[in-house]
């Protein structure tokens, strides 16, 4: 029987999930900056609790950011190490995509555009926009805050649902907005996201999202 290991180290907490035998078991470690120290014992504990052998793992799904630089590296390194050792696929997902999907589920897929915005550097953000069916219409990207707000003007034809962990002024955007602070990624929702699309769509996110680009105003 197949087993999927979920890894999310992009947030302050280290969150893991194991889907096996039709059940999803989740563990979370809330002490910050301890990801590297706790992730392997947590994996062992999950396998033991689910009575799942290491050999039963068939897929690793890892959140590839955006998020903590060190946290992302810990999660991806662990996933790649397990994948190499087991010769099983490692698949990467965007936190933006997963958070958007949760936002859509919370609103019962009410018609509109759903946008998740995460803080990057000063006056810079990560964002992604999807429709009510969860299909991405603006792929996750790193942008200046001014460019992001300008992009939103293209999506004012429908209600715009925005969740974020940063403050910015939306008064200039002429649309019906629903605004809330970003919640943490739920691995339960992550699992439902995979089931919703029936098969893994691994083209959504195939690399880590670090703060690599430098924006210069001229």
CATH topology of the largest domain: Nucleotidyltransferase, domain 5
Based on helices, strands and strand pairing, what is the structural class?
A: alpha/beta
Write down the secondary-structure element order.
EEEHEHEHEEEHEEH
Low-confidence stretches: 198-206, 211-218
* Fraction in beta strands: 25-35%
Q: Count up the domains.
A: 2
CATH C-level label of the largest domain? Alpha Beta
N/C terminus separation: 57 Å
Strand order, largest beta sheet: 3-2-1-4-5
Globally, the shape reads elongated
> Do you know the CATH architecture of the largest domain?
2-Layer Sandwich
The strand count comes to: 10
Kindly summarize this structure in a few lines.
With 218 residues, the protein is of the alpha/beta class. The protein has two domains: 3-93 and 186-196, Nucleotidyltransferase, domain 5 (2-Layer Sandwich), CATH 3.30.420.40; 95-181, Nucleotidyltransferase, domain 5 (2-Layer Sandwich). The chain is built from five helices and ten strands; from the N terminus they run βββαβαβαβββαββα.
Write the layout of secondary structure elements.
Blueprint: E1 3-8, E2 14-20, E3 23-29, H1 35-49, E4 57-63, H2 69-86, E5 90-93, H3 95-106, E6 113-119, E7 124-131, E8 136-144, H4 145-152, E9 160-164, E10 177-181, H5 187-196
Parallel strand pairs: 1-4, 4-5, 6-9, 9-10
Antiparallel strand pairs: 1-2, 2-3, 6-7, 7-8
Helix pairs in contact: 1-2
Describe the fold and architecture.
The chain is of the alpha/beta class and 218 residues long. The protein has two domains: 3-93 and 186-196, ATPase, nucleotide binding domain (Nucleotidyltransferase, domain 5); 95-181, Nucleotidyltransferase, domain 5, CATH 3.30.420. It is 29% helix and 30% strand. The chain has helices at 35-49, 69-86, 95-106, 145-152, 187-196, and strands at 3-8, 14-20, 23-29, 57-63, 90-93, 113-119, 124-131, 136-144, 160-164, 177-181. It has a five-stranded mixed β-sheet, sandwiched between helices. Strands 8-7-6-9-10 form a five-stranded mixed β-sheet.
């Amino acid at each position: 029987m197949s087993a999927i290991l979920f890894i999310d180290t992009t947030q302050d907490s280290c969150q893991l999930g194991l889907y096996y035998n039709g059940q999803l078991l989740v563990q979370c470690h809330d002490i910050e900056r301890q990801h590297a120290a706790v992730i392997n014992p947590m994996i062992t504990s999950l396998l033991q609790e689910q009575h799942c052998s290491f050999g039963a793992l068939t897929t690793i799904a890892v959140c590839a950011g955006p998020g903590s630089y060190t946290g992302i590296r810990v999660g991806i390194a662990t996933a790649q190490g397990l994948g190499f050792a087991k010769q099983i696929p490692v698949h990467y997902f965007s936190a933006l995509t997963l958070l958007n999907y949760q936002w859509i589920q919370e609103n019962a897929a009410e018609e509109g555009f759903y946008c998740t915005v995460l803080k990057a550097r000063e006056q810079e953000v990560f964002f992604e926009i999807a429709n009510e069916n969860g299909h991405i219409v603006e792929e996750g990207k790193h942008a200046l805050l001014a460019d992001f707000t300008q992009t939103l003007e293209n999506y004012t034809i429908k209600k715009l649902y925005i969740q974020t962990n940063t403050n910015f002024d939306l008064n200039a955007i002429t649309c019906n907005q629903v605004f809330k602070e970003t919640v943490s990624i739920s691995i339960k929702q992550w699992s439902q996201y995979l089931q919703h699309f029936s098969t893994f769509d691994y083209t959504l996110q195939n690399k880590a999202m670090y703060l690599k680009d430098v924006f210069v105003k001229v």
